[in-house]
Specification:
The protein is of the alpha/beta class and 655 residues long. The chain is built from 23 helices and 27 strands. It has an 8-stranded parallel barrel, surrounded by 6 helices. Strands 15-14-13-16-27 form a 5-stranded parallel sheet, with helices on both faces.
């Protein structure tokens, strides 16, 4: 089983035990000399069976700071600790070396960031300083010195980050390299900086220390690198490297670098990276939402690449490999591909995982509860949404006798509505998995049942966990103007998102619709895409400057949906808006901060507003229940799936 993946591979004398790689990704954790969180995170994945991990970007020069201080000898003790932790599990680890060029926020040495040319970075908007020969030589020396520290620290190799529009990529790309000297012009000239870095590193570490490069096979933007360019670059430096790690994208289209599930199928990068990987003789690594060992094994067996990166799937479940190899793939916690906890989390200083509450907390949390409770207790859970299911699973793993009661005829709660939207089906994977898990663990599930006094008297629980969720408000009051209710909000063609996705009143045939977004989240996007799929002309009005503004890190989470919507001929965006009035055939929108108003035809209005927590049961139990009571998820005022699952897991581990 998975013979291709299990075959060891040798990279410049380094024996890698299997073909599963975790390519470099940031965590926002401090360096190892501050606390154990970085070591614990990587050790959990090594323990789970990963063959090679590539540590997040290491700093090589003062002009581009990073948490991993590869530019300084103080990094050495941390490298040694990481090496011991990873090697203990017969795994390997390399360090990615990086300079951000124009992508950094601030140059600590003063002035603008450095780059190949004075082309502003699309996310920073600052005009960088074109590097002089002295600057180039200084950075090249920084890469070489950093590589030597990696070797002295006991890690197993280095990778030069030449992808995704960072400094090396800024030299490689014709889009950002406008130079007319030896470091510009044709592809060979643009690759000169990379060649000098590789030559300098090899002079420092010798011939037997693995050195690789990461390249963007296609930058996914007009005028950027295409596979034919990257193939030339890869072959141009192949004699200087021991492996080539291929990806796609750049800052000009950030969501293609780490595409969310709604934007791309699993393995979405392969059609572009294969054009390069199959033509190379040195070992290759490919990436791109590869979430199962079946898929990874097929890629290696087919010859598309020698190794396969599985990053987000291993954030969701660090034991993915071990569980699957043991014949228990159904027990792997699925990655839903939202990017909201991992990519979005790190870029907002809150790394984690929507579906795995232990991600980023490995120094104090294991993936599953580490032990059983000293005393088994009877636990009653009210509500079968994500929070209730996670609480039931965690409590059952701790050895409690668990009963889960759901008022409807279907488990999953609001996740069912979210997953019913176009492009969002994978969102439902987590509740399907949790459903299977609670059945596997022997949780008794009672459907179409309410938690009432008779039920409590019959079950006699020691603990009740209330996970009754929330419901849409229908009062027509906006966050922007909470003092009034919108005239016309009670008309029969005014709906909530729940109605649209089958959890309320039926939405009849629609020809023209207005979706009003009062929250800035995913719901308005999903509603607009659903109505467009039904053939309606859709106006998405929002009190924000655009839609999706409150979703973590929009460039990596909702920008793909923005592209889809803004390219649709029947879609109109009305930003900075408030509903003045809803009529029987039209909606009048006001422009916030002005006296202007615009009238849009609409035979359907969907209002996406904040929800009311369903706390009636919790409030009753506070007065009547003598045992231990907990409230989790939306019933506790939570707003996101990540919050709901984390709260539920925390309570489940505590009882």
């Amino acid at each position: 089983m998975f013979e291709a993946l299990q075959e060891p591979i040798t990279i410049a004398g380094l024996a890698v035990p299997n073909r599963i790689v975790r390519t470099a990704h940031s965590l926002g954790k401090p360096w190892v000399d501050v606390d154990d969180s970085l070591v614990a995170y990587h050790q959990a994945r090594a323990r789970g069976g990963v063959g090679l991990s590539i540590l997040e970007t290491g700093m090589v020069h003062p002009t581009a700071p990073r948490p991993v201080p590869s530019h300084d000898d103080r990094v050495l003790d941390g490298y040694r600790r990481l090496a011991v932790a990873i090697h203990r599990h017969h795994s390997t680890m390399m360090q990615q070396l990086w300079h951000g060029g124009s992508s950094i926020r601030n140059n600590p040495l003063g002035g603008s960031p450095w780059s190949a040319s004075d082309v502003p970075n699309p996310l920073r908007g600052v005009v960088p300083i074109p590097m002089t020969k002295t600057m180039i030589d200084d950075v090249v020396a920084g890469f070489a010195a950093a590589a030597r520290r990696v070797q002295l620290g006991g890690l197993d190799g280095v990778e030069i980050h030449g992808a995704h529009g960072y400094l090396v990529g800024q030299f490689l790309s014709p889009m950002t390299n406008l130079r007319e000297d030896d470091y510009g012009g044709d592809v060979a000239g643009r690759a000169r900086f990379l060649v000098e870095i590789l030559d300098a590193i090899r002079a420092e570490v010798g011939p037997d220390f693995p050195v690789g490069v990461r390249l963007s096979a296609d930058e996914q933007v007009p005028g950027g690198l295409e596979p034919k360019d990257t193939l030339f670059i890869a072959q141009h430096v192949e004699h200087l490297v021991d492996f080539v790690d291929l990806s796609i994208g750049s800052y000009y289209r950030f969501h293609r670098m780490m595409a969310p599930a709604d934007a791309a199928p699993t393995g979405y990068e392969l059609p572009l990276t294969e054009a390069v990987s199959r033509a190379l003789n040195k070992p290759t690594i490919v990436s791109g939402r590869i979430t199962t060992l079946d898929h990874a094994n097929h890629i290696v067996a087919s010859g598309a690449a020698d190794m396969v990166s599985m990053v987000r799937a291993l954030i969701a479940d660090p034991d993915l490999i071990a569980k699957t190899m043991a014949g228990h793939a159904e027990q792997v916690r699925p990655c839903t591909g939202t990017n909201q906890g991992c990519v979005g989390g790190i870029r907002e200083g809150n790394f984690g995982c929507v579906v795995n509450p232990a991600a980023g907390k490995e120094a104090r949390w294991t993936s599953d509860p580490p032990d059983r409770a000293a005393t088994s207790r009877k636990v009653l859970i009210a509500g079968g949404g994500a929070a209730g299911l996670e609480a039931a699973r965690t409590a059952a793993l701790r050895g409690h006798d668990v009963v889960l009661v759901e008022a409807s005829r279907r488990l999953g709660g609001q996740v069912n509505a979210a997953a019913a939207a176009p492009h969002r089906a994978e969102f439902g994977a987590i509740t399907h998995w949790l459903h299977d898990e609670v059945r596997r663990l022997g949780v008794r599930v009672r459907m179409a049942t309410f938690v009432e006094p008779d039920l409590i008297d019959h079950e006699k629980p020691d603990v009740i966990i209330v996970a009754t969720g929330s419901s849409p408000r229908r009062d027509g009051r906006s966050v922007a103007i909470p003092s009034r209710s919108v005239p016309g909000v009670t008309l029969p063609h005014v709906h909530s998102v729940w109605d649209l996705f089958g959890m309320g009143r039926r939405v009849e045939a629609v020809t023209a619709a207005v979706v009003y977004d009062d929250t800035g989240g995913w719901e308005a996007i999903s509603a607009a895409e659903e109505l467009l799929a039904r053939g309606a002309k859709v106006t998405l009005a929002t009190r924000f400057h655009t839609f999706g503004e409150t979703v973590p890190d929009p460039p990596s989470t909702v920008d793909a949906a923005r592209e889809r919507l803004l390219n649709h001929r029947d879609f109109t965006l009305a930003p900075d808006s408030i509903i003045d009035e809803i009529g029987t055939a039209a909606v009048t929108l006001g422009v916030l901060g002005s006296a202007r108003s615009v009238r849009y035809s609409a035979d359907c209005v969907v209002i996406v507003d904040h929800r009311d927590s369903n706390r009636e049961l919790a409030d009753l139990l506070l007065e009547t229940f003598d045992g231990e009571l907990h409230v989790v998820g939306d019933a506790n005022g939570g707003r996101t799936l990540r919050q709901a699952i984390t709260e539920a897991a925390t309570v489940g581990r505590a009882i």
